[in-house]
Amino acid sequence: MPAIREFIRQVAAVKRKDGKNVIPIIIGGDHSLMYSDVAGLADVYGKGNVGVIHFDAHYDATKNLFGHMISHGQPVYRLIEEGHVPGKNFIQVGLRGYYPNKESFEWMRKQGFRYHTMAEVEKRGWKGVMEDIIREAKDGPEHLFISFDIDVMDPAYMPATGTPEPNGLTPRETFPLIRRLCAESNVVGFELVELLPYRVSGYETVLNSERIVRECLVGITLRKKGITDKSYFAPLTVDDDRE
Ligand SMILES: [Mn+2]
Q1: How far, in Å, is the centroid of ligand 1 from the Cα of 20?
Q2: Which of 49, 148, 190, 205 minimizes the number of CB atoms within 10 Å of its CB?
């Protein structure tokens, strides 16, 4: 954990040619990585100066798991407890299933978390929820970290993961949101975690995981080029304005 945190700190402190910092992209590995990744970025930008958008079926804020202080179920608790990220700068997307339970939701409310469960998506529809997520991402600290646990997506698309949970996001819901978050917010780091390729033999999980990372890279590039129009599509790919 300390070695990863130090490595992230070193990478994120490097200045690019345009004067901005390098954006580390971390591919895991389980979600315990999140602790080191976010703490390393907070070492660079300052405690409380990095907000987190956390995509996950689970809330990962367990206080004590079988006596352990850190595991893939605890990074959020540790980050909050140690003050790296205030609860109000935490946005969770995709929660569902048996966890978080009532007590967990109450803890999240107390910390000031903003969260969007799949129950909310069912109630309101994806479009409205997605716009809220993007608006909230801009209503926080200047720097944003995206933590993407692949189990936020439906196991139909991401079966090779340790704790799959039915009724998740589809690619068509997820990809545009990742692209837009990376285009419209100041993303300073991105992680994709919980990929477990040997759990299910097949190609779809790595295929979709690779695309998630690529959507973020496209978003970062759009931002660099000054294209932040949310309805942006490469003109040749759409038939809207054909003469
Ligand atoms: Mn997780």
Answers
A1: 29
A2: 49
